[in-house]
Amino acid sequence: MALASSTATPRTTSSLPTPPMLDGGLPFIGHALDLRRNPVELLQRGRDRYGDLFTLRLPGSPSTVVMTGPKAQQKFFRLRDSEMSMREVYKLMIPIFGKGIAYDAEPEIMKEQLGFFHEALRESRLRTYAQGFVEEAEDFFGKWGDEGVVDLYETGNELTIYTSSRSLLGRSFRESLSDEFAKLYYDMEGGLNLLAFFAPHLPIPAFRKRDRARKRLGELISTIVADRRAKGLKEEDFLQTVMEATYSNGRSPTEDEMTGLLLAIMFAGHHTSGITFAWTGILLAQHPQWIERLRAEQGRVLGDKSTLELDDLRGMTELEWVVKETLRLYPPIILVMRRMLEGFDFGGYHVPKDSMVMASPAVGHRIPEVFTNPNRFEPDRFGPEREEDRKHPMSWISFGGGRHRCMGIVFAQLQLRAIWSHLLRNFDFELIEPRYEPSYDRMLVGPRSPCRARYRRRKTKTTVAVPG
Asked: Does 383 reside within a domain?
């Protein structure tokens, strides 16, 4: 563990040793192949051997220091912008988001852009999003038959494309252009691979499709913006937020910046929710006692109401614990990285300037000193009697931590509660595959394909309508 009693060790260029190097690896590429095959196994091996800090050898960096455990994670997520750079790590996103957006922006500009996201999460917007989530779930699952087989991963991604496009770009866009939007999104996502970390502008087919999709989406958004301005229309969606936003110097975002900001929030939330939807279904089917508990909660929260609103979703606390426990066991983002602009001392070691530093939710969430029975599905650990995530700051890091914590957590939680509220009341599920394991073939880690389940519509189904 990070053994120092303070999280701010005095800075030196010092006599302290660098964190120990993990054994293994190959000439030239170091641990890259092991990291590609099974990153969690590699990082867990390092933690088991060396504790909170150890070093990997990876191409393109003099050293990569892995920081796990709540104290080390606290240090990682509290690094100041003057100490570290996210731009170097996430430059593969620049062709998608655009120059000067999110990680490519100067720290002060990025801070202002994050403020736009805060505005998009104000109460009136959240109420509109919640209504959209409920309507989309009713419509999507209303088209299912009385029984059938679905792939949970594919279902989650398809449904969250609909909910995300509606929340970002409005109901009319969702109803007329969601299919094209889905194709554009997947073409852009196809440009995210290992090669993009090192050479994101190579003239290869995947990158060409990515760039064409980004251009087309910009055209669609420009059309929506022009139409709203010409007609004087205002919508309760994220696009309206950035249309009305201004930087501190009084400048409004350009349409290219609007597109980039929309994509930034989309990439932050869509696949995270789709993956978590799938794992939630798997874990609930494996632990049916929790299905009964959640159905009882649905009855307590909704009673004989004929509408489902934001406050109802907020009242589903046990469902919130289930989603948090799902994200603890199977975080979609298993690695978070920074490049150090300055060296620092911590936990008896010196981390040199220009090092990459890495935190891992997948490893940090399964530390037995923090989470009791860490490999077991126990949503009660987030309840008032245990509150294990509150005992150590930065122990639950599915959405990061500190100033750069992903604000999509509120959006994602409401979305997943709306979807699973409908499913719990209307369907039973039975798993089909003999095993459900993570796939490390993708940047965001979901269940390995196929990921099928058999559903049956409940005879005593309960449908709760949306307001109005």
From this structure: no
Task: Of 335, 333, 242, 328, give the one whose Cα is nearest residue 283.
Answer: 328
Q: Dihedral sign for Cα 264, 63, 198, 161, please.
A: negative
CA distances from 248 to 306, 370, 407, 413 (A): 45, 42, 21, 31
Number of domains in the chain: 1
CATH number for 196: 1.10.630.10
Q: What b/e sequence results for 88-119 when a residue is b if at least 16 CB atoms lie within 10 Å of its CB, and e otherwise?
A: bbbbbbbbbbbebbbbbbeeeebebbbebbee
Q: Is 299 a domain residue? A: yes
Rounded to whole angstroms, how far apart are CA atoms 403 and 230?
A: 38
**190: number of Cβ within 10 Å:** 14
Q: Which two tokens stand for residue 8?
A: 């701010």
Q: Could you tell me the pLDDT band of residue 57, with boundaries at 50, 70 and 90?
A: very high
What CA–CA distance (Å, rounded) separates 415 from 396? 20
Give residue-wise pLDDT tens across range 220-254: 889 989 999 999 988 888 889 899 999 999 999 99
Q: Give the model's pLDDT for residue 407.
A: 67
CA 331, distance to chain mean position in Å, is 8
Strand order in the sheet with 452-457: 147-151, 452-457, 427-431
Burial of residue 52 (number of CB atoms within 10 Å: 0-12, 13-18, 19+): buried
Residue 462 in any domain: the answer is no
Q: Could you tell me if residue 93 is inside a domain?
A: yes
Domain that holds residue 96: 79-333+398-457
Model confidence, pTM:
0.89
Rounded CA gap, 63 and 65, in Å? 6
Model confidence at 431: pLDDT above 60 = yes
Question: pLDDT of 384-429, one tens digit each?
Answer: 999 999 998 899 999 888 777 776 778 888 999 999 999 999 999 9
Q: How far is CA 10 from CA 3, 4, 20, 51, 349, in A?
A: 14, 11, 20, 21, 12
HSE value, Cβ hemisphere, 13 Å, CA-based, for 276: 31
